[in-house]
Amino acid sequence: MTLAVTAVALLIGAVLGAVVAAAKLSGNRVLVFLGSVYTTIFRGVPELLIIYLIYFGGSSAVTAIGQAMGYEGFLGLPSFAAGALAVGIISGSYQAEVFRGAYLAVARGELEAASAIGMSRGLRFRRIIMPQVLRYALPGFGNVWQLSLKDSALISVTGLAELMRTSQVAAGSTRQYFLFFIVGGALYLILTSLSDQVFNRAERRANRSMPSAMGQV
Amino acid sequence: MDIEFLSSTMVTLLKALPMTLALFALSVSIGCVLALVIVWMRVGGNRYLAGFAKGYIFVFRGSPLLIQMFLVFYGLAQFDFIRNGPLWPLLREPFVCAVLSLALCTAGYSAEIFRGGIRSVPPREIEAARAIGMSGFLLVRRIIAPIALRFALPAYSTEVVLMMKSTSLASLVTVWEVTGVAQRLISHTYRTMEVFLCAAVIYLVLNFIVLQAMALLEHFLSRHLRAAPPAAKA
Amino acid sequence: MPEVPRLSVRDIRKSFGAHEVLRGISLEARDGDVISLLGASGSGKSTFLRCINLLEVADSGEVWVDGEQIRMVQKGGKNRPASQKQVDHIRAELGMVFQSFNLWSHMTILQNVIEGPVHVLKRPRAECVEEAHALLKKVGIGDKANAYPAHLSGGQQQRAAIARALAMKPKLMLFDEPTSALDPELVGEVLRVMRALAEEGTTMLVVTHEMGFARNVSNRVAFMREGLVDSMGSPQEMFGAGASPAFRQFIGHFQA
């Protein structure tokens, strides 16, 4: 369950992140401003608050839509959707910064060389920019994944029956809090260290063209 | 825009601000001291201490803060020796549990950040100090620590901002700080957007202040990296 | 009474893994000696110098500074100094100048120079500051006291490093290829300072590639080859007819 939420959230985040990064890099003052507002708010405000916003605000919105369509009563936003959306929006702001940094890290010279050869902008984007952006962004993504994994723990607040919640419920019913939280925590630890290994391997593969002296940032 | 509602919300939220600030200040300071101890263990020669520190950092960075907080708040109460122990009146308090778990968590992250700073100290400068006859605590105090601090500062300011945001989790263990009060307001009034806006503004201002303070510190410490002043008159 | 040599090194051996870098080096430096240590890369010159102030620890051998032996013990199969305090005390009496200057970049030049005297020798700050200004003037950068190392040229930084070493009032100065990292036009100013020190009677041990210095300023020249001292003597002997064939071949590389 945790993985599903995180995965969906990351996809949402990737799309949002790419859009916002593009906005911030565009040079258009309005877009840059809007992009900055987005990243500032969603990185600067506690995740919990954002989850409340999405869940309660989303529920109100959904209820309002329901009422407009003639349905009386309260419609809750399904918790999976709320959770994924919230974490998605948050990780989107972090991903925007990762994309932006990775894009800026692609050496100017390589872009010029590509243009000098006569590559069209589309081709240049596909063959030179994208692969390098992905390579530079990988460490950042590792962080974003870890972050989102932990944020999905907060989804328990909106009643999602997933890893955290299961621990809590199980703990409540048997009053064996300590044991169940330890198990829950251990499971998370395993998830994060596994993710760590996957990302490290991916990074090493992506960086095989770089000299080995280039250590971790 | 209902100005009256906004301002009354703001007032209510601001009443919880001292609690947020207290959580923040205490956990950052305790966490920082604890991190220094942990990193001292980690880079020292003793294999067992280093192993313990490594494990500590792994656990507290790898697991969610929320679980850690629940463990401290709900979990500790389970053990008889804690309930009957001398610290119980303290450990019973949600505020203390929150500060304790926040401090333990940030100590893990901060120790790793400090360790990165220490590893960035140019070995040549350490060698020059040893060649003059410095060692031990003197060496750390005069050469290693100042340089390591300068390298660690950017990453540490990010961590401090994260701490400010993490205080919001204390609301889940019944501490009435800004986010907790905000959630209560939302569930009473259903005016999600307005309450969110007010709370968001508070946090954004707090973060801004913290970032400015850190930037000032960085500026003050990096005089040696800036361009030379125009030549003094002969 | 025979004079106690400033430095006496006996049978120093050092290996890095399977590679034996120093194969039994002995050397003596009397008060006022200026000894140039020459040799090809890999001959072990820098390692030998660093074994003297224990930045490297020799596998065996003895180091005596001014009649005091650096006490060593065998710990876990390795040679280790017996007392960190003694090591610090000896290091404070030996001045070292590094190839990469190694100034502390977060401190001004003045702070660099007074750091040792104030914090290691525990002398009063005002005195140290006054002496520091005099030293900086002596090496020719009196006006740079409040600048940071990054603002200085290589030659200026190295002269500052020399002042820093001199501030400790050492019994012996060790120079580890002091001009090798400098642009050619800056080498002269550093050599001038070193020459002045030699003429004042400073005891100096200099690892260098500067043949001019070895020939004209030092009073003894030692040639190292493959971890041993191949030959040693006065500059007249070494650069003249008495030179060993290996040495002659070595200096042949330096004459275009």
Structural commentary:
The complex is a heterotrimer of chains A (217), B (234) and C (256). Chain A has helices at 2-25, 29-44, 47-68, 79-105, 108-117, 121-154, 163-174, 177-206. Chain A is an all-alpha fold. The longest helix of chain A has 34 residues, at 121-154. Chain B has one domain: MetI-like fold (Orthogonal Bundle). In chain B, 39% of the residues are buried. Chain B starts with a helix and ends in a 13-residue tail after the last helix. Chain B has helices spanning 3-15, 17-43, 47-62, 65-75, 80-83, 88-91, 94-119, 123-132, 136-166, 178-189, 192-221. Helix content of chain B is 79%, strand content 0%. By secondary structure, chain C is an alpha/beta fold. Chain C is 36% helix and 27% strand. In chain C, the strands form 3 sheets. Chain C has a 6-stranded mixed sheet with strand order 8-9-10-3-11-12, sandwiched between helices.
Q: How far is it from the N-terminal to the C-terminal residue of chain C, by CA? A: 48 Å
β-strand number of chain C? 12
Q: What form of chain C results from the Cα inertia axes? A: globular
Q: What kind of sheet is the major sheet of chain C?
A: 6 strands, mixed
Distance N to C terminus of chain A: 32 Å
Helix content of chain C: 25-40%
Structural class of chain C: alpha/beta
Based on secondary structure, the structural category of chain A is: mainly alpha
